[in-house]
Amino acid sequence: MTRSILGRLILTLAVLAWALFNIIPYKDKPFNLFVKDRVSANTQAFGEIYMIAEDRVAAGKEPSLYVALINLGHEEKIDFSTYFPDVNLADIKNLDKRNEVLLQYLLKESQGKIKLGLDLKGGMAFTLKIDDAALANKNKYERKLQLEKAIDIMQKRVNGLGVADPIIRAKGSDQLEIQLPGLSTAENPDVLANLQKPAKLTFHRVHRTKYPTGAAGEEAPTGYLTMVKEDTDQKTGEIREERVFVRRVPDMGGNMVKSAHATMNQYGGYEISLSMTSEGADHFASLTKRIADENNQAPYGSMSESNPAKYGRLAIVLDGKLYSAPRVTESIPGGHARISGQFSQRDALELANVLNNPLEFELTLTEMSEIGPSLADDARNSSINAALLGAALVILFMIVYYNGAGFVSVIAVLLNVIVVLGVLASLDATLTLPGVAALVLTVGMAVDANILIYERIREELRAGKSTKAALSAGFEKAFSTIVDANITTLLTACILIWLGTGPIKGFGVTLAIGIGTTLFCALVVSRALLELFVNTNIIKKLLPFSFLKPVHMDYLKYRVKAYSLSILIAIVGVIAVAVNHSHIFGIDFIGGDELTIRFEEKLGIQEIDEVAKNNGLGEVIPLYQSLLGDNKEVLKLQTEHGKGPAVLAALEKAYPNAQLEMIGETSIGGSVSDSIKTDALLAVAVALIGILLYVAFRFEWGFGIGAVVSTIHDIVLTIGIYVLLGGQFSASMVAAILMIVGYSINDTIVVFDRIREELDLHPEMKLWDIINLSINRTLSRTILTSLTTFMAALALFIFGAGVIKDFALVFIIGIITGTYSSIFIASPIFYWWHKGDRKHVAQREITPKYHWEETTTSVGSDKK
User: Fold this and answer.
1) Helix, strand, coil share of the chain (percent; to 5)
2) Would you say 286 and 360 are in contact if contact means Cβ atoms under 8 Å apart?
3) Strand pairing of 336-343 and 252-253?
4) Contact status, residue 276 vs residue 256, Cβ threshold 8 Å
5) In the chain, N or C terminus with fewer CB closer than 10 Å?
6) Which helix (DSSP H) or strand (DSSP E) does residue 175 occupy?
7) Is the backbone peptide bond immediately before 358 cis, with ω within 30 degrees of 0?
8) CATH at residue 610
9) Are β-strands 115-116 and 430-431 bridged in parallel, bridged antiparallel, or unpaired?
10) Residues 199-228: what's their mean pLDDT?
């Protein structure tokens, strides 16, 4: 075994071990079982406390064991850290805080490393109502703007909580619904409080000479309020109080604060850095100058330096609570200030998050519930089985067609998936359906990379090279193609992360991770294993047979027919979109009605879907929710506008024993907000520009134009065909379209990279012949990649359920259009751009790579 092979194997094992460490345990363990098993000291005493907490939950006094332990620890002054001495909490002196941090740590430890989103696991939901006073005397349009502002603020706050892929939508004219994946309302009681804070920030001058004593019946001076600031001593855990009189009328509002950031100061503590708006900067400078000028006026100037009254103070008040009252020694121009105090890192981050999203009106809770997964258990299980079947078909094909080399590729692809999940788990990311879409695309790219390498090795073997020499040459020649194809897809992923929100950003993150792991597994893992098996004679004959023989076809002569066909399909698709515009967008985009239904017999989500489909009632999204404090589930049916009663009637007729009873109905807005739609379009547009620039720089402008045109072609045709087949777009379909972008560009770059290579190798050949030669030599790779990806997608389409089925259909259409465009659209566009003259290619390269003279002519061709 050579040193290079050994090094690659060691690196592979190290990466695998790291990924498994991050993934395991992949499944949640019930908190009540976990915490009981986790106790490492005084187990008998803790068992008694545990039983008391369980009795509280059983009696309905507490919503969960977690909350019961928190409350029990506070009431009985129990220090839970004594039962878990292996968890180092010595630096937290306050008992309640220490218990909270410990139980949060144990809760997180009980959870699986791979977090699932709302569509796969469920989560928690709130319905919040805007304070009536905030909507008083406002017309319908102004109310809508107020609600949209609240939704925008909630999106920013949820992002600050680190929750991935939430659903935030309007509900009626004065409410909004928030659904957070993977969280429990009982075990995350502080989430709601963080979301509904009005965050009304004000600045008040502090009375310079008088301070409250705290005596009973003490009154504040006229025009002042008494406020108390609480600090926890980090050493003793004791709570200290400071009382001040602050002006009743604020001197400055929080609307003048531009941004806030939690930063570490020179003493290792945390503080909040404030940046003011242009108006706020002037106002703040004037206010602090006024206080500073008063410092030198009688009678305060005669006071000693130690007397705090020598300096005026400015109180910083959030929601009526005093956070800090720093001294003002001089005017503060420039619009920058700090809120200082004994903040923990968590407190500083939470405060900065709230200050960045000021909500000047109150939100009241009208409903809190646990929600089940939007992708039902039966649909999820059938879809998982379909995915496993598709993967099995791909594995079987790779092993049968490539023998030992196919077995190596299967190992590399499986390792690829494990490493992607390991990275996601290490980032504490939430896996949702768009993330699964990116994972599917990652598997497709991983298989594609291995097929590309093997087909290059096969070419070298046909040229008469030995097995070892062919293996080495195959990897070297496939290297640039794999890197170019993946970098263009990575560029797309990075732009989706940069400009996207919600499902778009989630897709981009997973795809970016998958690209990195694909490059590693294809170029390091596959090569190490292949070289090891070849050098040790485990694989004696590499790639023994092929049912795809080399072809010699003139593709360019069909370019006009191909253009005509594409234009015809595109026109028909655009007409179909225009005609069915009111029906092609689902509830995620345009909203609808939501019915709340009681039942005696629970219906399966697939059963509900079938009733809606059989009766032509359009899209129906069923969700089961358990209202907090009520053990009985209710069924939430989200339907298209005006179709709620018809859906309920159809269900009552189909399942009379369910005894369905509607107890509420309201309108809901789309979960895909206008900002998400705009961000998606902007992200795709910028991605296409990025692809154009990268390909132009890496290759030249003609290749870039061809890549962009073929990608747009695939998007337009996929959408058009999907609509013609009666498809309807949901939030998950956005991820499916983005997946087509990644697949299309990957396929096109492979062909273009071969054209560039053949231009270098054959300076005597004409551009027409170079393009045909390149397509012919990459055809086996194109067919095999499309075949393996198609098998996986087809299994999902036939055996999957719900949105998975629609998702698979979009991908199947994208595979067909992507394969077609890489042969009949992208390359002919490149040929047309250069007017059929290869001299035109050389002249427009940023860095010419060869000098040639055309000396021969191809038989039967009069092209340049």
Assistant:
1) 60, 15, 30
2) no
3) unpaired
4) yes
5) N
6) strand 175-181
7) no
8) 3.30.70.260
9) parallel
10) 84
State the Cα–Cα distance between residues 45 and 674, nearest whole angstrom.
56
Q: Give phi and psi for 447, each to the nearest 5.
A: -65, -40
Q: What is the DSSP letter of 42?
A: -
Q: Which CATH number characterizes residue 314's domain?
A: 3.30.1360.200
**Tokens, residue 49:** 């406390």
- Average pLDDT over all residues of the chain: 78
ω into 656 cis (within 30 of 0): no
**Alpha helices (runs of H) in 463-525, residue ranges in sequence order:** 467-499, 503-520
User: Do 119 and 137 touch, CB atoms closer than 8 A?
Assistant: no
| Domains: count for the chain | 5
As beta bridge partners, residue 365 has 128
Of 609, 636, 668, the position where a domain reaches its end is 668
At residue 100, the pLDDT reads: 80
Q: Where are the alpha helices (DSSP H) in 197-277?
A: none
Q: Could you list the residue range(s) of the whole structural domain that residue 351 is in?
A: 201-358
- Residue 771 corresponds to which amino acid? I
Name residue, tokens 């009973």: 216
192 or 137, which is more confident: 137
Give the tens place of pLDDT for each residue, 396-417: 888 888 888 888 988 998 998 8
Same domain, 506 and 641: no
d(CA 661, CA 651): 11
Is 537 contained in some domain?
A: yes
pTM: 0.64
> Alpha-carbon distance 469 to 629, whole Å?
71
The SS3 call for residue 240 is: strand
Burial class (CB in 10 A: 0-12, 13-18, 19+), 36: middle
Same domain, 626 and 518: no
CA distance 325 to 338: 11
Q: Which two tokens stand for residue 266?
A: 């020179």
Q: Is residue 370 part of a domain?
A: no
Give, to the nearest 10 degrees, the angle between helix 433-462 and helix 467-499: 150
Both 333 and 214 in one domain: the answer is yes
